[in-house]
Amino acid sequence: MQILLTNDDGIYAPGIAALKHHINGLGHITIVAPDIEQSGVGHSITFGHPLRIRPVYLNNEFIGHGVNGSPADCVKLAIYEIMKEKPDLVISGINMGSNVGIHILYSGTVAAAVEAAIMGFASIAISFEISDKYADVHSAAKVARTIIERITKHKLPKGSLLNVNIPSLPPDRIKGIKITRQFAHDFKETFARRIDPSGRDYYWLIGTDKTAHHEEGTDISAINEGYISITPLRYDLTDNALLKKIESWNWEGIA
Amino acid sequence: MQILLTNDDGIYAPGIAALKHHINGLGHITIVAPDIEQSGVGHSITFGHPLRIRPVYLNNEFIGHGVNGSPADCVKLAIYEIMKEKPDLVISGINMGSNVGIHILYSGTVAAAVEAAIMGFASIAISFEISDKYADVHSAAKVARTIIERITKHKLPKGSLLNVNIPSLPPDRIKGIKITRQFAHDFKETFARRIDPSGRDYYWLIGTDKTAHHEEGTDISAINEGYISITPLRYDLTDNALLKKIESWNWEGIA
Question: Which of A140, A171, B13, B194 is most enclosed, with most CB atoms within 10 A?
């Protein structure tokens, strides 16, 4: 099995190293990841400047290909330019921090998996909730391996991907797995306004306290309750119900 | 009516100026847009560095608020920090270049409208196909005004937005309006590999020839055929059909 491994925390991030270590033996692994951290870049792509691919070494050992672009760029370059054989599975992660609810849209980790799904490849995004409770990415990577083994027993429909979130708990305290839908409400993230030493305003985005959100059956409730959340996603944003409705609006005489 | 106007081509872009000019009289307009072009940034948000808001003047006239961030950042800042009254309508555009098919996911223009929808506000993304056939953004802005007038006669359901694409044609050659779904297939965009003066490889993303794509009922077919395309979108990516299916997979004993 050919596996493409990418992330949005950058090629030197602990999450990608832990995952590579723990999925060893599942297949041939190619790592293509951003040179530097790309958190929150969403599904950005690079066409305003050229992309470079450079071999990356750690302790004199080749670990993968670094790209001066976004996670989605990495997937495109990996599949079109770097990998000799096409991947059987694309894995994006492990992201340090959950990607649930509307954060799915902001996430470079999920965008890489979405890009792979668009290109017709089976893909999974894996994120690990970070908290002061627990932060051992190696235990998350072990859990991730078991999930990957289960998933690869099945065929994912073309164009779909799985978004996996692992709660910030030791493995023996994780309650199990829930198959969930995306929590589709605003997290109401606002800004902190501060004054810099020159007297000018600046604004920091304030993250939400996700543990405050509950809605049965959603990704965020699952991890809040101590379950692994697996949400199947697709990249077709069409609102089919609204489509039927607005067809009957008056569109005569506009052009 | 309070209108928030933003874009991803930057606050000085011709598309936002043309739209502001032609929707004059529809309501009170507040412009909040990125300082510089942000095309292809997708739904990126900024939390790695602080954001600044600066008043922007053109020919000594105040035109709006410039932000050193993404289109989605602009919408958040506009609504939480800048506008005294909440917007009745958020308009993102006019983007110079269509945003159809999977390009919806890469688009900063659409992401701004999605962000507004997440926050519960009625929103529209407007893009103008650019070609060597025709490129008068003022005629597109006139068409956009009529569309906006029609849309504001109705109430958009919370969380939905409309993605409008105007074909690259003079108004009298536009055939009408089609209500469409997103073209949900890969555009098969690849890379040009070049050698720089130092002998090193670099890669440019090559855009697709969108006129080659046809699928009845989709956004891309509509503009290829000379129609204005209006696609209702929502930001819930859950694949509900797959959710039902994978619930029956074996998830026992993982954690």
Answer: A140
pLDDT of residue B211: 81
For residue A247, give the DSSP letter: T
Instruction: Tell me which chain B residue has its CA closest to the CA of residue A45.
Output: B40
- What are the pLDDT digits (tens) for B10-54? 999 999 999 999 999 999 999 999 998 887 788 888 888 899 999
Q: Please report the sign of the dihedral spanned by the C-alpha atoms of residue B101, residue B103, residue B107, residue B109.
A: negative
pLDDT computed for residue A211 by the predictor? 80
How far is B247 from chain A, CA to nearest CA, in Å?
6
* B253 within domain boundaries: no
CATH number for A171: 3.40.1210.10
Does the structure show a pLDDT above 90 at B124? yes
> Which of A80, A111, A180 has its CB closest to that of B191?
A80
Q: Could you list the beta-strand ranges (E) of A68-200.
A: 89-96, 123-128, 160-166, 177-179, 191-195
Express each pLDDT in B136-168 by its tens digit.
999 999 999 999 999 999 999 999 999 999 999
ipTM for this model: 0.92
Query: What element of type H or E holds B64?
Result: strand B61-67
Q: What's the domain range around A122? A: 2-184+212-246
DSSP B211: G
What confidence score (pLDDT) does residue A62 get?
A: 97
| Contact list, A250 vs chain B (CB under 8 Å) | 150, 153
Q: Looking at beta carbons, which residues of chain A come within 8 Å of B249?
A: 150-151, 153-154
To the nearest whole Å, the CA of B181 is away from the closest chain A CA by 6
Look at chain B and report how many structural domains it folds into.
1
Burial grade of B113 (CB within 10 A; 0-12, 13-18, 19 or more): buried
- Quick check: helix, strand or coil at residue A183? coil
Which residue ranges of chain A lie beneath pLDDT 70? none
- Rounded to 5 degrees, φ, ψ at A90 are -110, 130
Pairing of strands A28-34, A2-6: parallel
Q: What is the mean pLDDT of chain B?
A: 94
The contacts of residue A244 (CB under 8 Å, 6+ apart) are none
Residue A195 is assigned to a structural domain of this protein? no
